Structure formats: structure tokens, C-alpha cells
Amino acid sequence: MTTTSTTATTFSSRLPACRGGTPSSSTSGASGAVTPAPARSLEIAPIEQAGRAEADPTRPRWHVTPAWGWLNDPNGLSIWPGPDGDDLIHLFYQHNSRAPLHELIEWGHQYSHDLIHWTDLPVALEPGPEGPDAAGCWSGVVVEDLRPDGTRVPTMVYSGASDRSTQTCCLATADSADPLLTRWVKDPANPVIDAAPVSVGLDLPQMRDHCVWREEGRWYQIMGAGLPGAGAHGGPGGAVLCFSSPDLRHWRYEGPLAVGDGDVDATGTVWECPELARLDGPRGPVDVLCISAWHEERTLRSMWMTGRRTGTRMEVGLTGRSDLGENYFYAPQSLTLPDGRRVTLGWMQDGRTRARRLAAGWAGSMSIPREVQVAADGTLRFRPVAEVASLRTRPLIRAGGEAARGAALHGRSVDLLLTGRLEREGAALTIDVGLSTDGARRTRLRLERAGSASAAPAPAGQAAWEGRLSLDRSSSAALGSPWATKETDRLSGPVPLGPAGEVELRLLLDRSSLEVFVGGQPLSARIGVDPADSGIMVSASALVGAHLEAWRMGEAYPKRRLEI
Description:
Elements (H helix, E strand, L loop, with lengths): L1 E2 L42 H10 L13 E13 L5 E10 L9 E7 L5 E8 L10 E11 L5 E10 L6 E7 L9 E3 L9 H4 L7 E9 L2 E10 L9 E9 L6 E8 L10 E12 L2 E12 L2 E13 L2 E9 L8 E7 L5 E7 L5 H7 L1 E2 L1 E2 L3 E5 L5 E5 L7 E9 L1 H4 L2 E3 L2 E9 L6 E8 L7 E7 L17 E6 L18 E5 L6 E9 L2 E6 L2 E6 L8 E5 L4 E10 L11
Parallel strand pairs: 2-20
Antiparallel strand pairs: 1-14, 2-3, 3-4, 4-5, 6-7, 7-8, 8-9, 10-11, 11-12, 12-13, 14-15, 15-16, 16-17, 18-19, 19-21, 19-22, 22-23, 24-35, 25-34, 26-31, 26-35, 27-28, 27-34, 28-29, 29-30, 31-32, 32-33
């Protein structure tokens, strides 16, 4: 992706295109209404939380996790020069350092040289004792503000939660003498965009989250919202509202950029986490709007929409699901790397009970960073960044033919690649992970060549894909097991195969984190598996020309320092 702009040189490559965010409830990970969070109702010593997190056998080893406490949306993903002048990738995130619960949210902070190996930094932004963010510093972006004297200032644009009817837009700037961006000062003018009735003249159910860019000498941003009466049956519909400003501090409402249909089974009634960007497609530039659909306290899914933007309005064409795992890939954040790749990562929600989170000392992780591209059929495709290969420590198998079609492996931290062809409709393969020695417990992945989902008229976009991928978690853990998650629903949807049924399947298993990519379409999930169940079985007798490779994976973090 490139930045949304009519001029190619408007943005520096070190800036994110835009950013959204979402609050979450402490019980389900779902977003909630804008009300003040409870005062510090629970506080556990960091060393105690960190000890529990380090000992927890379900905590991912090479996905972004908090050193302790709560994590949800990625924020402010951006690139800035470090102490030695080399570029560092900064990732901020929704965080509660006091307990692994969604309470009084602050901004956690980590940095990386390669998007894979991470280092913790101190909390970057905390709620104030009073004022527009007293109930939490919720999601936002980091952009580069250019002062009149030529100084380039990293600037946070974030949602403040308080007693106002909706969240408000707030700013904070970094200390220019601090190359690790650990010191931030809130703008005394906060909020720079007030609650919806004040700023847009509408009584909205929600207005929050930010995507900010500069174009032709002026700043623009969109905020996620829901518009009463905009849905197909008179109910609310998701929307992104557009604002413009000469200086990031004085904003004018420009109207809705795009509005949804209010379908509670698809696009939702509120759009969170809006991202607007321009990608280079096979037929030229494509405008892409990414949103996270929300309805009545429930995070539904992340979706993309392609089309054409004219000024502050966008006409939407194709729409698709960013991940078949629904809200296990939520509130994604993206940026353009200096080499031109556009990468994104999202929040993998936590499906455990409150008691299990407290016992584990941590909650929430990020997806693996994914490269984003526009395919020839106009859909978006997502693949793990190439740097993931740096985590491979030793090969588990490299085989073709019968050995690949019926392979038995062991591991809870694995990178697996399976290729071949499903040549006829109905042909299928399965992969079991978390397989117990007696075969009673397993998490089953199934890929079938099923034909397109629609018959007439001719399907387009994801509906034209001939593969069907599903994940069955109903037998992942024994009934009553402490490892079981609350959510065991089957996850499924269409995936692209080649014209002759070619399969390209990548599976990334990191303890409780599972991500599967087929032809560039992901399915992500949190799985509850007994740590003793480490079997992996590939059953692919129908796969012609099968080839299988798998590797054991290493750690993404240096030894974590408890004083952070």
C-alpha cells in the first residue's frame, strides 16, 4: 500500500498511512460503549504478572505479546531513526500494565529492527487523573508533524475516553531529544475534536479511532462511527467520518467518506479502526478502506473495501473478509516499509475466562506481520512477511509424494508449508494440530476444492474462489480442561486455489496462536490445547504432487527485563 494521497511525495516512507482502534470489554474482548472505565479496581505487582506469563505454556513465543498484563489493538506502527541513526519499527498497543484485564487503558510500547524480534519499552501514554482521557487513552496513530522551523515531530493522534457522549480526538508529541520515543507530552488544547454532537452535529452511538494523512498541504483524518438510520432497514449503519485541518489542531467536519448497510451478520452497525490507503494493483492504483465491524458490544470481523476515492468521498466496489478467523484478526494497523512492501498486523483476541487470564498474567497477542497485495481478481491477499523465516531453528520434515500426504510430526511451535493440487471438486485434505496420543483431542483444519460459492450471476471477488477452508475446535481440549477456551465455534470461508486446483498452504502454530494462509487468504484463531498434546498429522491423499516442509521455530524476544 501507499499512502492515500493525490501526490506521490506527500508522505515520507516512515509514516503509517492511517490507523484505527477499538476499546474492549474485560470479559470477551469486545468493544463497549463509551463510559468511564472503572478506577484501578485490580492491581497486581508487575513481577508477579511477569512470572505467571513466563511460566504459562500457552503464551506465544514469537508473536508480539505484552511482557505482562493486557494487550489489544496495535497503535502508532511507524518507523523512526533510533539512537544509532538506523531505522527502528515502533509498535504501540492498547495495554493495561496493572492486570491482564481491559481497564484504564494506556499505550504499551515495543520496537523492532525487523518486525519479528522485539524489545519492550516503558508505557508511552497513560490516562490523566481528569480531562478528556481520564477513562483511557484508546487507539490512534503516530504521524510526523512538520513545524514552521522545519522540525519534524512525532505526534500521536489518539482517542480519549471520558464522560463525554463519544470518544474525542487528542494529541501528544514526542520529546525530540529521545530517539526511542519514550517521553510524550499531551497537547494542552485536548480534545482537538470533541464528542460527536459538538463536532459533527449528530447524536451518534459511537465515534472513535483515527486514520490520519497529509495531502496537498492539508491534514485529513477519518474516524469510525455508526450513523442512525443509515442501515438497510432503518437501523444504524457503520460509517467513517472525514475531517480536515491545516495544523492537526483545528478540524473541520467534511462529512462521511463511506457508509455501510448495517448488516449485523456482515458489515455491522458501527465501523471501528478505519484505514484508508492506496495500493498499486495489476491495473493501476486502488483505493482501499479497511474497517473492523462492530455490533452491540461485539467485535465481528475485519473487512476490506476497494473502490475509488474522490476528495473526501469514496465509492466502494468489492468487499471482502480480511481474515476467516473473524475477530481473531481485528483492528489491523499497517505501514509501508522502506523497501516498498506494505505490511499489516492485527490483534488476536484472547478467548479465556477472566480467571484464566489472571492466572496466566497476560492476555492478547498480535498476528504475525503480513505483506498486503492486490491480486489480479481485485481481491486483497495477505502473506507472512519473509522475515518469519529467520525464526526457523531446525527442519522437521522435507518430503514429497506419499511421505508428504501422510506425515506425522510433533511440535507446538511450527512453520509448515504444503503445496500440490486438488484436481477435482470435492477433493480435500486435513491437518490436525494439538493431536493427543490417543487421538481423542485435536484441532482440525480442512481444505476442500468445493467450487465457487455463487452460481449466477457470475461471482466476483471472494465469492468466485473455489477453495473452502474450515477450522474445527470442538475437540481441541477435554471437557472442563483448564486449557480450553470459551470460544470453540467452527471458523470457515472461501480461499483461492490455482486454475487447476493448485494449493499453497502455510500454517504457523505458536502454542495457542494458529494462523493459516491459503493462496494469500488467512484464517487465524486462538486455540485451547493441552500443552501435552503436540501431535501434527497431515492427511492429504487427494493432493496430487504434494510437497511438505516444516520447521521448528525459535524465540522472538531477548530476555525480558522486569523493570520495564
